[in-house]
Design goal:
CATH topology of the largest domain: Immunoglobulin-like
CATH architecture of the largest domain: Sandwich
Distance between the termini: 92 Å
Shape: rod-shaped
CATH class of the largest domain: Mainly Beta
Helix content: 25-40%
Strand order of the largest sheet: 1-2-8-6
Mean pLDDT: 89
Number of strands: 10
Low-confidence stretches: none
Length: about 150
């Protein structure tokens, strides 16, 4: 066996070694991403399972000719929620909690935080043009409750 055969064999094995290294890295990174996505999905499902809310009161008040929708919502689950991640639908229309129509948007007893702990009550008061029929509150994990006004 001459040098050319030995040299060619080394080049082939070196090429196979590099190819295997690249393929293994790509497969390993792909598998890590799949595992991470599965873990996140499992954590999200657990959060949804442990989240529960109940609208305690939904009423419309007429103050000086202006209508206000007053709603209280109880966190009856075991998940800590964020009021900033809570969405409000009034008659199917999204109501932004930072709009100028929102008079009150707070956790009862602690108006300087957006943390909504289990057992606490969240309250909002929003001015409305007409008397609404229905209000729906949706939490960050996607659990919702609705009430006829």
């Amino acid at each position: 066996m001459g040098f050319s055969v030995s040299g060619a064999t080394v080049v082939i094995f070196l090429g196979l070694f590099i190819s295997f290294g690249i393929a293994y890295s790509a497969a390993n990174n792909g598998m890590e991403r799949v595992n991470d996505a599965y873990e996140e999905n499992t954590e999200d499902a657990l959060a949804r399972q442990n989240t529960a809310i109940a609208i305690g009161n939904a009423s419309v008040a007429n103050e000086g000719g202006d209508l206000y929708l007053n709603v209280t919502v109880n966190n009856t689950g075991s998940t800590t929620l964020s009021t900033d991640d809570t969405d409000i639908l009034i008659d199917g229309n999204y109501t932004n909690h930072t709009s100028s129509r929102m008079e009150t948007f707070e956790v009862v007893g602690s108006d300087e935080t957006d943390i909504w702990l289990p057992g606490e009550t969240f309250r909002f008061n929003v001015s409305v043009a007409t008397r609404p029929d229905r209000v729906k509150v949706v939490t960050g994990p996607g659990v919702a409750d609705s009430e006829v006004v």
